[in-house]
Design a protein that fits this description.
heterotrimer, A mainly alpha (102), B mainly alpha (717), C mainly alpha (505), A: 102 residues, C: 505 residues, mainly alpha, two-stranded antiparallel sheet, 20 helices, 75% helix
């Protein structure tokens, strides 16, 4: 088996890419993509720890399934919000959505 | 002779009738003249009667009365563990004094009825508080003015009743405290009576002057009494004048200028007498006291008050004589006053003023006698003087009354009925007054052998000479000469020659209520001297025993010695008396105007300007001190000034706290400041709120990492 | 009857208070009712205090007729009442003067109800000081007495009343600050405010307090007590409130101010200062004597300088209370000796006597003021023929004030002089100067009012002076009778005082 650290590094890298995407992409949908990526990296992390820890303890798998569900729910809500915003503002660029400015 | 127990009881009762009369008159019989004077004279009569019973029918008849006098006392003030007792004491001294006081008081009371014109109509425009001015009556269609009755008639009798009470209390008391009580009550009465005609500004001021001057003496006397009491724990005469107590007093130092306790106490008590008996330098009140009605002058200045002063010193003689320094002061003041006052008397024109200064002078004689340890002589002269001086004063009142009759007759009120230069020739108009006045005047001058004054004065001379007190002897001799001189001057100007004014021409003899007392007193003025004829006197001595010497001498523990007879003092007495009288007669026989009187010297007439001097040194500075210094400066200026700093100071502090602390710091800095800070801070902080979610997320991430680093480095995570 | 005799003191103390409260409920605009009700209500404490006087056994040491009620037991303060010879004399004086003052106020026509109520409250305040044997209660009543007097002066006084009343109140209250602090110190230290306990323990107390040595604390506390009482007596130089307050107060207010309130201060000295601080009293007695002599002398001089009749009498109070202080100072210096006892006898008797004569004098000033509406001596003149009875009464009362033998003032002054002479010779001698000028100002008063030529202004027409009336004579009569009685035969009161003083010191 490959050492655990490879999976963790891989997960961390994926997380960072996702985070970078969230923080720097203009498009709101791209931000949501970044969030998805972060969530998936978390899943990888969880699976790796499950596999390299106690295999009989299925907590890690369960957690990963929940994350899937949450991610799905969340991205659907997020996309719905983006569509709603686009219909009002005719834009999906995050920077333009600054109505909560002082 | 009466029983001793009776005598004791009577002694307690002696002062009571007059004070009861005082109370009753003031409260009840004020409006009724007859009732008032009857009450008063009845009271005086009662006191006279009890006094006679105690003295003539008891005290005078007891052998060695001095060894067992009448004494009785009760508890009065509770102090500490014991009581202060007060009571009565009649020993030879007080018996003699009581005798003359009773007679003179009675005489004056009776005299006052006539003096205040009882029975006369009320005046035309008489006001209470002013002397009466006469009433117009119509007789047979003819109007003339007659003397009017005194508007405040009843009040007068009330006051002299109180006065008599004071004197009797003083004489019968067995201790210094009740003596002082009587003393001060008389002081009050002299104030009330000198200021009897209170609406007259001069009378009002004279009353205040009398009171204040004697009060100076009184405060010293009070100190003396307090001091004596503190050293001996008693004020009772019988206890003080015992061997052991006197010894204590003589040896304890007082700490003041080397006087022993006895000396200082004696000095302090003597100062009281200086005030009360108008000795130099507290003599200034007595001449002004002539403002009072004449019976008052007689009472105060002859019979009672001034005699009280001398009595007090005589009474305290065993104490005072313990310290020679004090005795020297006493003798000096007495002798000096005697001659000082005599020199002033020669220049006075008011008939009463001559007598006033004469009183001061004669009192000086008595005091000087005491100062040279001539105890008996002093007592003798005190008694004789009371009689003849009362006589002279009442006589002068009679003269003035007669003159006022003349003034009312002519209607000329510019003529002063008391000025001797307005009189003259009254011998024929007022014979009884004349003869009695003559007797009194001769007694005062010491006319040899047939007047009481001679015997008492001679005794003083004999004592002074016999004991080698040259200065005193010579001073008193000169004073005696002047006495005779001014007395004859007075008699000549008043009675002899021809009437100088119309008023004098119309003068009339006074009613019997006034002349009877004169006659009675003149009997004493002649005869009283014969109870004290010295044994070694040529021819007459030994015919009648020297009862006085025996009797009075018994008051002291050791009988005073009889002085060796010597011709010098006797001849001196003769010479000064007769010489003075003669000179007075010859000098004034033909004088009719003040301008012709060679002795109207400025500073004599003006009493050496003492009144003015005292005014400048004492009265005005006292008032300045009171008003400007104590009240304006100290109280209102300094003390209130300091207090008035507190209010504004508190105000200033309050304002300071508000303006320099409350407003800037609390209000502005803290209160407003925190609001402003929050506002500014908020303003700066809102820049973060861009509304852009990515920046929010970025910020979150950064802070998250920062906290992680902090936690990691502080090993908290 | 039993209730009365067991609760005598609290009845004396609180009946005026209750009467005052009841007055609140009386119908409006019934001036006659208010006056007579107040008079009647004030006579009850007088009768009760006479009962107390006759029940009192002067030979027994300590306090009699004691009553104790719980009040503030958490801090150790209770309503503890009791009398000894000293306080009984003062109670008698108070209960005597208040009815007379009320009777004297029958001619007040404005706000009569409030006036009478204030007098009754004032009576309770003053009696409380004399009766209480608990320090905190003492202080409470001390301060309580100030408030009614402030209003009396402020509302019914003369032209300058605002200044005078404020000065009086603030000055006295300011002085009591130290007193309050010192009392608190004692209360905290001994966990009780009971007077007898504190007296027994404080004089021997020598532990440091909060790190400060006991002697220093005692000295400071001593001065705190002294200042408070000195302002009240008043001791020179703390006296300047008195002329203003007395002059501006209404007649009856001045009677009570001079008659009783001043005695509160002297009582404080006798009851508290001397027993609590015997050592400090001895050390500082010289200073007190100096101030007392200053009061005697300067009071007399200032009185002599006055042209306002009432102010003249006011300063005479300074002068007379100086004698009280002189006696107290002498007693402080030589405590326990026979001389000190005599001096204290004189001082206490002087307190009583001065209460009588000062009340009388102020009333007489009020009588003439009611008729002439001026107090300026220069505006009177020769009034004797118009008002002979008044004149006679004025002379009598003035002579009492002057200390004429035969009247009460002499006895007390003589005793003070006699007692102080061996102890404080120089001061006694100097105070004679004050005695001399006492004569001066008294005579000045008489001279300006009664003597001299008649001022025609008062003789005719609308300004014509009326003689003193029956009500006014009734006010003066008890005072004059007592003055004469004490002057002739003082043993009845002096015996009580003598024994009390002997037992206290």
């Amino acid at each position: 088996m490959v050492p655990l650290s490879w999976y963790l590094i891989f997960s961390a890298a994926l997380f960072s890419i996702g985070l970078f995407g969230v923080l720097s992409r203009r498009n709101a949908v791209a931000i949501l993509l970044g969030i998805e990526l972060m969530l998936n990296s978390v899943n990888v992390n969880l699976a790796a720890f499950w596999r390299y820890g106690d295999v009989m303890d299925i907590a890690g798998q369960v957690f990963a399934i929940i994350v899937f569900a949450v991610a799905a729910a969340e991205v659907s809500v997020g996309l719905a919000l983006v569509i709603s915003v686009y219909r009002r503002r005719n834009t999906v660029i995050a920077d333009d959505l600054n109505m909560l400015k002082w | 002779m009466i029983h001793e127990e009776t005598a004791k009881l009577l002694t307690w009762l002696i002062p009571l009738p007059p004070v009861l009369a005082f109370a009753l008159i003031l409260l009840f019989t004020n409006r009724n003249k007859w009732l008032s004077h009857t009450l008063a004279i009845g009271a005086a009569l009662l006191s006279w009667l009890t006094s006679m019973l105690v003295t003539v029918f008891f005290a005078f008849r007891i052998e060695h009365f001095g060894d067992h006098p009448i004494e009785d006392s009760i508890n009065w003030l509770p102090l500490g563990d014991s009581w202060f007792r007060v009571g009565v004491l009649i020993d030879p001294l007080s018996a003699l004094v009581l005798f003359f006081v009773a007679w003179t008081v009675l005489a004056i009371f009776v005299y006052s009825v006539g003096y205040h014109n009882y029975g006369q109509p009320e005046g035309d425009h008489d006001h209470k508080g002013l002397p009466p001015h006469g009433a117009t009556v119509e007789e047979h269609g003819h109007k003339h003015v007659v003397p009017s009755v005194e508007p405040m008639y009843a009040r007068f009798f009330a006051f002299i009743g109180l006065f008599a009470f004071g004197m009797f209390t003083l004489v019968v008391s067995d201790n210094l405290l009740t003596l002082f009580v009587g003393w001060e009550i008389m002081g009050l009465c002299s104030y009330l009576l000198i200021g009897f005609w209170y609406a007259k500004p001069s009378a009002r001021d004279a009353a205040v002057k009398a009171f204040m001057t004697t009060r100076v003496g009184d405060v010293f006397m009070l100190l003396g009494i307090a001091y004596l009491y503190s050293v001996t724990s008693t004020l009772s005469f019988r206890t003080i004048f015992t061997e052991s107590v006197l010894h204590t007093l003589a040896t304890v130092p007082s700490g003041f200028l080397g006087f022993s306790a006895a000396g200082l106490i004696g000095l302090l008590l003597f100062i009281g007498t200086v005030g009360k008996s108008a000795q130099f330098p507290l003599h200034v009140w007595l001449p002004d006291a002539m403002e009072g009605p004449t019976p008052v002058s007689a009472m105060i200045h002859a019979a009672t008050m001034v005699s009280a002063g001398v009595y007090a010193v005589i009474r305290m003689f065993p104490l005072i004589s313990l310290d020679e320094k004090t005795m020297t002061i006493v003798a000096f003041i007495g002798a000096f006053t005697a001659i000082f006052a005599a020199t002033i008397a020669v220049a006075q024109n008011d008939i009463k003023r001559v007598l006033a200064y004469s009183t001061i002078s004669q009192l000086g004689f008595m005091i000087a006698a005491l100062g040279i340890h001539a105890y008996i002589a002093a007592v003798f002269h005190l008694i004789t003087h009371a009689f003849f001086k009362a006589l002279l004063f009442l006589g002068s009142g009679s003269v003035i009354h007669g003159m006022e009759h003349g003034v009312l007759h002519t209607g000329n009120h510019n003529v002063d009925p008391q000025d001797m230069f307005n009189m003259g020739g009254l011998k024929n108009k007022m014979p009884i007054t004349f003869w009695t006045f003559l007797i009194g005047g001769f007694a005062l001058s010491g006319f040899p052998l047939v007047t009481a004054g001679f015997w008492s004065k001679d005794e003083i001379f004999a004592d002074a000479f016999g004991n080698g007190h040259w200065t005193v002897f010579i001073t008193l001799a000169v004073a005696a000469f002047l006495t005779a001189f001014y007395t004859m001057r007075q008699i000549t100007l008043t009675f002899l020659g021809e009437p100088r004014t119309k008023e004098a021409e119309h003068a009339q003899e006074t009613p019997w209520t006034m002349t009877l007392p004169l006659v009675i007193l003149s009997i004493f003025a002649i005869g009283y001297g014969w109870v004290g004829i010295p044994e070694h006197f040529p021819v007459l001595g030994g015919l009648v025993p020297n009862w006085l010497h025996e009797f009075v001498g018994g008051t002291l523990v050791e009988h005073p010695e009889v002085v060796e007879f010597s011709w010098t003092p006797l001849l001196t007495s003769f010479v000064v008396a007769l010489g003075g009288l003669a000179l007075g007669y010859f000098m004034y026989r033909d004088v009719n105007l003040p301008a012709e009187d060679k002795l109207q010297i400025g500073f004599l007439k003006n009493k050496y300007y003492f009144d003015e001097i005292y005014d400048t040194i004492f009265v005005k500075p006292a008032f300045w001190f009171a008003e400007k210094f104590v009240y304006q400066f100290l109280d209102k200026g300094v003390i209130d000034g300091i207090l008035h700093l507190f209010g504004p100071a508190t105000n200033e502090i309050g304002a300071g706290i508000r303006n320099y602390f409350d407003l800037p710091i609390i209000n502005r800095f803290i209160g407003d400041g925190s609001a402003d800070a929050t506002y500014w801070f908020g303003g700066k902080l809102r820049a973060i709120q861009t509304g852009r979610i990515q920046q929010y997320l970025m910020l979150t991430l950064i802070i998250f990492i920062a906290i992680g680093i902090v936690l990691y480095f502080f090993k908290l995570a | 009857m039993d209730f009365i005799s067991t609760h005598l003191l609290s009845l004396i103390l609180f009946i005026p208070l209750f009467a005052g409260v009841i007055m609140l409920l009386l119908p409006a605009d019934e001036n006659k009712l208010y006056r007579w009700f107040a008079l009647g209500a004030s006579l009850i404490p007088l009768i009760l205090s006479l009962m107390a006087w006759f029940q009192f056994e002067s030979n027994k040491p300590g306090f009699q007729l004691e009553e104790t009620y719980a009040w503030y037991s958490a801090i150790g303060s209770s309503l503890h009442l009791g009398v000894d010879g000293l306080s009984l004399t003062m109670v008698l004086l108070t209960t005597l003067l208040i009815p007379l003052a009320i009777l004297a106020s029958f001619n007040i026509t404005e706000k009569v109800k409030a006036y009478m109520m204030l007098f009754l409250f004032l009576e309770t305040g003053m009696l409380g000081v004399f009766l209480s044997l608990d320090l905190l209660v003492f202080f409470v009543f001390w301060e309580v007495g100030l408030v009614p007097m402030y209003f009396l002066i402020n509302q019914w006084g003369s032209a300058n009343r605002n200044y005078a009343s404020l000065k009086f109140l603030i000055y006295t209250m300011g002085g009591s600050l130290g007193l309050l602090l010192a009392i608190q110190l004692l209360g905290v230290l001994f966990k009780t405010y009971d007077l007898q306990t504190i007296i027994a323990n404080w004089s021997t107390y020598s532990d440091p307090i909060a790190g400060i040595p006991a002697n220093t604390v005692k000295t400071i506390a001593f001065w705190a007590f002294v200042i408070a009482f000195a302002i009240k007596v008043p001791v020179w130089p703390f006296h300047t409130w008195l002329p203003d307050a007395h002059t501006e107060a209404p007649t009856a207010g001045s009677m009570i101010l001079a008659g009783v309130l001043l005695k509160l201060g002297a009582y404080g000295f006798l009851r508290l200062v001397l027993p609590l601080y015997p050592v400090e009293a001895r050390i500082f007695a010289g200073a007190l004597a100096f101030l007392a002599t200053a009061a005697i002398v300067f009071g007399a001089f200032a009185s002599y300088a006055q042209t306002d009749f009432k102010r003249l009498v006011a300063y005479s109070s300074v002068n007379h209370m100086g004698f009280v202080m002189l006696g107290i100072a002498a007693a402080g210096l030589a405590s326990g000796t026979n001389d000190a006892t005599i001096a204290l006898n004189g001082a206490v008797l002087q307190m009583f006597n001065h209460g009588l004569s000062a009340a009388g004098m102020f009333f007489l000033v009020g009588v003439i003021y009611d008729r002439t509406h001026t107090r300026n001596l220069e505006e009177y003149g020769g009034l004797f023929p118009l008002v002979p009875v008044y004149g006679g009464i004025l002379i009598f009362t003035s002579m009492a004030s002057l200390g004429l033998p035969g009247l009460n003032g002499f006895i007390s002054e003589f005793l003070v002089v006699r007692g102080s002479w061996p102890i404080l010779t120089a001061y006694t001698a100097i105070s004679m100067l004050g005695l001399l000028f006492t004569g001066a100002y008294i005579l000045k008063g008489i001279k300006k009012v009664l003597h001299g030529s008649l001022n025609q202004h008062w003789a005719h027409g609308e300004h014509k002076l009326t003689e003193i009336n029956t009500r006014e004579i009734l006010v003066m009569a008890p005072l004059m009778a007592l003055i004469l009685w004490i002057g002739i035969y003082p043993a009845w009161i002096l015996d009580v005082i003598n024994k009390a003083v002997g037992m206290l010191f």
